[in-house]
Amino acid sequence: MENNIDWQKEDLKYIWHPCSQMKDYEELPPIVIERGEGINLYDIKGKCYKDVVSSWWCNLLGHCNPSIVKRLKTQADTLEHVIFANFSHKPIIELCMRLSKLVPKGLTKFNFSDNGSSAIEMAMKMSFQYFEQTGFPQKKRFMALTEAYHGETIAALSAGDCDLYTKIYKPILMDIIRIKAPDCYHCPYNKTRDNCSCECFCDCEAQFEKYGSETAAILIEPLLQGSAGMKIYPPLYLKKLRGICDKYNVHIIADEIATGFYRTGKMFACQHADITPDLMCISKGLTGGFMPMAAVVTTDEIYQAFYDDYLKYKAFMHSHTYSGNPLGASCALGVLDVLESGEIQKHLIEVTPYFNNLIKEKFLNLDNVGEVRSIGLINAIELVSDKKNKIHFNSKLRLGYQIYKKALKKGVLLRPLGDVIYFNPPLIIDKKDMDFVVNVALECTKEVLSELSIQSLKV
Ligand SMILES: *Cc1c(COP(=O)(O)O)cnc(C)c1O
Fold it and tell me: Cα separation of 408 and 41, whole Å?
């Protein structure tokens, strides 16, 4: 029977895919994947796609990584799930014992959920309740940066500032205090990332002066604003932020959902600036992309503000059904097995400069490449219509989407953010695959740009 099924047709009959205009699927039907191995995905016809976006940034160590698979299989035969109020299990305890040695110093308590957005909401609630219970009830508001991305549920979406996701929902979103994010490519002070003193921090100072006393926490994507187009800013900004938050008694909620687990070259991005946030949200890389799991990691000080006799009603009455799921915990242990062996770090030291130089070399001299930037293995190429004046293409041209479609034909899964082409591959990618994916991205970019200039000659 299986042979007669048209999987793409059946998919479209039932499934409403995430973050998609479903009408686009008329032209580009869903690619039905059969299996994965390393950075490769294979569809039902056997065609291979190099997954250089780590399947939405979560696949850390390659598809079907054997260390993780082994842990998961054993766990599935032992215990799949148990209620996490009053009950516990060894994998989650071991996970916290091991993770606590790797998180920024001073973070000691773990509260689990099952996706990044829910971790963000949990951190916001914790911060608010902390101030309610420590004599600062006026601290009810939150700050976040322009172009931030913190997830899709209502509070997380409120903290975010990408019009494409938030605009229509504005009437039902929270009123967030907005701080102008560092924009190094268009630096208003004409500095570069390595010679600046984060002059742009003055906007943050102004907002703290105005609203610091009524603010519970600021949410921030440390060093890398991912969905904004892989925008990268210097660690000094975080150091300054730690200073001003201490001054105004405001929590830092570090959203390390995309940046954690060596994506930026260190275990967590905050460690580049040597700061400890008050609350840190982790997900994506946590289970290597195997199971939905997230956590808020926080300080003893925050934990203690909830710790009292039951009838004082100070507990954090927040739960998710799958909190602390054993299958997720066992996958996370598989990730730590690999990270603690030190192999990945050695591999990264060898291949990161190769990858980053290769991309600069191939792309930087193109007429329509405004900036090539990198942190860890993450590389972003920003396309512009006018390089000298840093002017973007009309977004209606959907350049990124044209490049995406061409690259798929050639067996590479890129997924540009607007006109920013980026690579965020599993950390195990080798030099041969780097050569291949960069060449495909370059060919596709050149083809799309030349088609565009032919088009514009015609009109
Ligand atoms: C992916 C992401 C989220 C949201 O996580 P979900 O699991 O998709 O809800 C939040 N913040 C950042 C920085 C992310 O990259």
Answer: 12
